[in-house]
Design goal:
- The structure is a single chain.
- By secondary structure, the chain is an alpha/beta fold.
- The chain is built from 3 helices and 10 strands.
- It has a 6-stranded mixed sheet with strand order 5-4-3-6-7-8, sandwiched between helices. Strands 1-2-10-9 form a 4-stranded antiparallel sheet.
- α1 packs across α2.
- The structure holds 1-O-pyrophosphono-5-O-phosphono-alpha-D-ribofuranose.
- The site of 1-O-pyrophosphono-5-O-phosphono-alpha-D-ribofuranose (PRP) has 17 residues, from β3, β6 and α3.
Length: 180
Amino acid sequence: MTSTVDSTLQVLFSREQIRHRVAELGRQIDRDYAGEKVVLVGVLKGAAIFLADLARSISVDNTFDFVAVSSYGKGHQSSGAVKLIKDLDQPIEGKNVIIVEDILDTGLTLHFLRGLLDQHQPKSLRVAALLDKPSRRLEKIEAEYVGFSIPNQFVIGYGMDFAERYRNLPDICLMPAEDS
Ligand code: PRP
């Protein structure tokens, strides 16, 4: 499944594999929301590129919004507390909302966001996560739409970073162990 693109980065999912999978997710969302409108809520920053591609794979009427949450210090001991640092711009009451995430890891971020957005009384609330690391879960939460399920690997590219770098890689790559 993996192939070497240069001396350091191994591709886990190529841009073609991502494109195919995102198109499938788009068709699934089109079927599920036929005749309805959808608000895609991207979680900054990692989800920006997935949201851009997912939105263009969806034919049902859709709009975007974005939220941002504070990082709770992954990789270090922390309280696991998540805070909202950028709220929705538009009300979502009575609307079909899909939270769009690049990766579902411990589930702390999505557990927090789902609870928060639920308080706005949307008509429906689902989650689309491009990557899912089920083995890392601390909160019991699942995404209704999942691109790829992966083991506990440090991934970069297609929106995902290491110290803010690599978000622009078109493929999803494995972070070389010696650099992470
Ligand atoms: C990543 C990702 C999710 C969160 C998932 O964001 O985009 O928001 O972690 O992790 P969890 O399931 O353990 O809560 P990150 O904090 O790396 O910020 P970024 O999106 O700006 O890269």
